[in-house]
Each structure stands twice: as C-alpha cells, then as structure tokens.
Design goal:
Elements: E1 2-3, H1 7-18, E2 27-33, E3 36-44, E4 50-57, H2 62-75, E5 80-86, H3 90-99, E6 102-107, E7 116-122
Parallel strand pairs: 4-5
Antiparallel strand pairs: 1-2, 2-3, 3-4, 5-7, 6-7
C-alpha cells in the first residue's frame, strides 16, 4: 500500500537510512507492507520547476516509483527532480541511473566526511513507461 501519512514517520525512516534529518516543510510517500515501511520518498526544497527528492528503500517497486514521479510532475508541476547521494554509495548511484537520473555534478564534502553527487531526472527521462 502506498501512503503519504504520517509524513513525519516516513521522513524519519528515510532520514535514518540516509543519515539526514528533515525539517518541515516537506511531503512524503512510502510503500508499506505488513505494517512496515519498505521504501520512502521525501520531497522538499520545491522551487516550482524542481523539487529535491530523498529516497531510501529496502525494496523499491515500480508502483512507488510511478506514484512518486506522478506526484512530482502532476501535483507539484515540476519538470525535474533532483537527488543527492554520497559518492561512496555505489548502490544508490546505480539505482538512480536505473530510475533514469543523470549525474550532473559533485559537491565536495557535502556530507562532511564524503562528497555528494548530484543527479537529476527530467520528466521525459523517467524510464518505466510513465507518460508525463
């Protein structure tokens, strides 16, 4: 089941897995199985054309990915989503590429102990048949 509330619990779950704390305002989506979150998105830093998206997942489904990008494109009316990940998190980098994201830059010491990599995905680049 895909849910958007309680958003603070979703944000705490995502944040605990990626090592950040989210401060409002933000929105969130998660997939819940057997009463437990298995994947979640947090959306913040909305600028009308872009939104920063944070993602954590034990298991990421096509249904949640589609719901997240429908939210970005149809609800927020954004043309793109921005992701940041640790330069040493190879699994996250591979996942972002599978989502259709492109590497756009490096932010030195963004995470304090590690560089951050900046990825972006345009609505027309979403690879799973999403008709934006």
């Amino acid at each position: 089941m895909i849910v958007s509330e309680p958003r603070a619990d979703i944000a705490a779950w995502v944040g605990s897995r990626i090592g950040v704390t989210f401060s409002p305002p933000y929105t969130a989506l998660a997939e819940v199985r057997d009463g437990k979150i298995i994947a979640g998105y947090v959306f913040n830093m909305w600028t009308a054309h872009d939104v920063e998206v944070s993602l954590a997942a034990d298991r990421l489904t096509k249904g949640l990915m589609t719901a997240a990008f429908r939210y970005v494109v149809q609800t927020l009316k954004c043309d793109r989503a921005t992701f940041r990940t640790r330069a040493d998190n190879i699994a996250a980098q591979k996942s972002l590429v599978r989502l259709g994201a492109s590497l756009e830059g490096r932010q030195r010491n963004y995470f304090g102990d590690c560089d951050g990599l900046l990825y972006g995905i345009l609505k027309e680049d979403f690879p799973h048949g999403f008709d934006a």
